[in-house]
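Q: I have 516 residues here and want to know how they pack in 3D. Can you give me a structure?
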Amino acid sequence: MIKKENLEKTSAWPFVEAKKMLRERKTFIEKKRKITLQTGYGPSGLPHIGTFGEVARTSMMVNALKQLTDLPTEIITFSDDMDGLRKVPENVPKKEILEKNLHRPLTQVPDPFGKFNSFGEHNNEMLKNFLDNFNFKYSFKSSTSLYKSGFFNTTLKIILENYDEIMKIILPTLGKERQKTYSPFLPICPNTGQVLEIPVREINKKNSSIIFDNNGEDLEMSVLDGNCKLQWKVDWAMRWYALDVDFEMYGKDLIESAILSTKIIKLIGKTNPSGFAYELFLDEKGEKISKSKGNGITIDQWLEYASPESLSLYMYQNPKRAKKLYKEIVPKAVDEYLDFIEKAKNQDEFKLLMNPVWHVHNSKVPKENMIMSFSMLLNLVETSNANSKELLWKFVKKYKTNISEKDHPIFDKLVGYAIKYFNDVIKLQKKYKKPNKNEKLALEALVKTLDKCNDKMTPEDIQTLIYSTGKENGYSENLRNWFKLIYEVVFGDENGPRMGFFLLVFLVLKKRKILY
């Protein structure tokens, strides 16, 4: 049991947001005796890391709540799969199938992958399978299912009753032309199956129906049972109302939508959930990651190169700061994950609450001892030319004896990840430098210096000798260029490992006759 004073003092963001939500929603939570958190997913494209980040971060909130209250919690993962397909994603096969079905609800668009009944169902299953692999606890809700089953009917009637006041909230935010055609309700065309954005002629609150102007012809549709769906901002407020949502986080780009949805839910009689706006995920060019573009690193790619926990750690850190997500950031994320595990071994309870791996592992931090960093392991893959886990483990065991795979499950997985990442990413980017005459002389001097080193020296001893050699051979004013030269010639990159530690490993391996 965590001490109360530590819970009160911690500034770890999941605790900060959990306490804020418990204050803001106190009356409602005490009345229903349950806490409901929601994450939203638009299945117009394949799930990406941003989608995962929302569920992972919300799960971290739940972990914090379990330390603060005994009330049950539920995470609703809501799929807006009744939305019309607006454009064809770039990263799907058989695009012509989707082109023929533009503007139809996603659950009515054929699956271009040929695996499920619809494109919406395919993307929903992709999301659920992924979240299941991470052992997230959530309740999946389908917009199509809830609309068509009548679950939303009561709230839809309330929306219709407040039609005019809702229009007063939304219309001032639209351009003059859009104001002429806007309606909170979007009918599903009985002829084409498309989600129509057409103006309203008349409202019949008694019959819960609306007459629309469909290119000069009257189209009367019930707003119930999935015959109409709501425009996004009204739909969001309707979900909060119908599902009694207490907390939802969302991207910075949805702040304006959240403000309008908040006004709408207050209008129809409830209080908005506690919110948390996070910064967006960007690709290596600084562009927003998009489901339709498929830019940035995908979920599957990250999991080929690193552990799920390293990805969760990346999601935990600085959620209100824009984060770039591309392949080259993986090694740093893994090493930070290992470093936080190592720090946790000597931390008191208060510091543990501030340690990201406490949140990543739901308060159960692994005790595994670190053998070497992931960056170091990647260098070992290159210099040893190991192409299998078994061979790479042999090199590792020669460096550090009396260790076994079963006692180091985290590192054992890293061994496999390192080979895959090196071959897929690092190897393709190598640009080895050919040294000029002066650079060659400096490197020859370094070789002579290193010939004098032995495995009894410390990494700091070797690092000092490398510094000294650089200073004596023209790099006294800029040692950064000295190491840059070494890295470019040896590793084909401007950056590399800390050379003292790296060379000590190879002195040990050489002595044990594994390298020569």
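Q: Anything worth noting?
A: The chain is about 50% helix and 10% strand. Residues 511-516 have pLDDT under 50 and may be disordered.
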